[in-house]
Design a protein that fits this description.
CATH class of the largest domain: Alpha Beta
CATH topology of the largest domain: Metallo-beta-lactamase, Chain A
Radius of gyration: 20 Å
Distance between the termini: 61 Å
CATH architecture of the largest domain: 4-Layer Sandwich
Strand content: 15-25%
CATH superfamily of the largest domain: Ribonuclease Z/Hydroxyacylglutathione hydrolase-like
Structural class: alpha/beta
Length: 322
């Protein structure tokens, strides 16, 4: 039974993705606000309207939508809402939720360039034009306005925006200090570690983002806030915030050191490491597994445990100990 708690109602919606159900949240504020929407499927919309009815509400009662980030399971169902509803999110949502042909081409070129550096065989390049087809669960509409670090979202004066990039460059969280409540998107999940997904550089930038380093910094950033409960994008709420952050950081370090041990024995490309890390799924989930592999290498480079060559493809090896 969907119900209110602390002026927040948690609504859990089905997705077609391996991650399973996604959580979206209604907030009673100066405006009735929905944080995230679910994925663009009839099944999700029907579940949403049924759970709203349990609160004696319908979609037309919702006055605005806030996005934690742009991924289809969090933003896709925007297309089911009327054009009149206001939508707020970080500026970096825009290129994903209202994509242009130029952005599709930019994304394809970005991955083509990096696939070469990563040492992927050319047979994998054929998937790049299909990247746009993965957007079938995504909406196609613009933000009404932008929200960034430190702002109070419109209609929610008790809440503050915290920028938390990593899992997505556009990711933000919403904090209500009085009760120590955070609506955290996919930053910190109780049961799994979110993927640090590769994205093209932000508009005006040239350097590839390093999502694992961003994600680690975003988790540590939460330690500066008196958070008692995180309402998460997937699964159950998180109450032991510092303990879980420590667990996630330690586990991630262990995974990276496994890669370092391989690189002490031989030079390897990103693709070779990816196949070792994910031998049974790398072909089926190439973008996820390549992103995770690059994440470990970015982390190892940041703590000066590895070095890389200037060759194409790039070869990585463990740094010689002094």
């Amino acid at each position: 039974m969907t119900e209110w708690k602390d002026g927040i109602a948690k609504i859990t919606l089905p997705t077609p993705f391996p991650v399973g159900d996604v959580n979206v949240y209604l907030i009673k504020g100066e405006r009735l606000t929905l944080v995230d929407t679910g994925v663009k499927t009839e099944e999700s919309w029907n579940s949403f309207t049924e759970q709203l009815a349990e609160l004696d509400l319908s979609p037309k009662d919702i006055e605005q939508v806030l996005l934690t980030h742009h991924h289809p399971d969090h933003a896709g169902m925007l297309d089911y809402f009327p054009d009149s509803i206001e939508v707020y999110g970080h500026p970096l949502n825009e290129r994903w939720i209202h994509p242009t042909e130029a952005f599709f081409q930019e994304q394809e070129n970005f991955f083509k360039e990096h696939f070469k550096a990563f040492g992927l065989p050319e047979e994998f390049y054929s998937m790049l034009p299909r990247l746009r087809k993965t957007m079938k669960y995504m909406c196609n509409r613009s933000l009404t306005g932008h929200i960034v670090e430190g702002m109070c979202p419109p209609g929610l004066q008790a809440w503050k925006v915290i920028e938390t990039p990593g899992h997505a460059q556009s990711q933000v969280a919403f904090f209500r200090e009085k009760e120590g409540i955070l609506i955290g998107g996919d930053l910190l999940l109780a049961h799994i570690s979110p993927n640090p997904l590769l994205e093209p550089p932000a508009p005006g930038e040239k350097e590839r983002p390093k999502p694992m380093l961003q994600h680690n910094d975003s988790m540590k950033k939460l330690l500066n806030y008196p958070i008692k409960c995180i309402y998460t994008g997937h699964g159950e709420e998180v109450y032991q915030v510092a303990e879980l952050i420590d667990k996630r950081l330690s586990r991630q370090h262990e995974r990276a050191m496994t890669v370092k041990n391989w690189l002490e024995k031989e030079e390897l490309t990103v693709f070779q490491i990816c196949k070792r890390l994910f031998p049974t799924v790398y072909q089926r989930e190439l973008m996820l597994t390549i992103s995770e592999t690059v994440a470990q290498l970015d982390y190892l480079a940041s703590i000066e445990e590895i070095i890389s060559s200037d060759s194409q493809p790039v070869l990585y090896q463990a740094k010689a100990q002094d």
